[in-house]
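Milestone M4 deliverable, item 7.
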Amino acid sequence: MAKTSPVEFVKQVQAETRKIAWPTRRETIMTGVMVMIMTTLLGSFFLGIDSLFDLIVNALLRLAQ
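Output delivered:
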């Protein structure tokens, strides 16, 4: 493989950077809001599941006494 000079490397990086399709401000905000909503829903779901398992384990432990 041929070696690339540092100047040529920087030019190639700039050319590739121009090809990136950056999201709009609205898309970024909407994605952030969706992440927050999904994180809250999943956190609530796992809290509920964990609480249910806690009740079951405590009930079983009370039976064993």
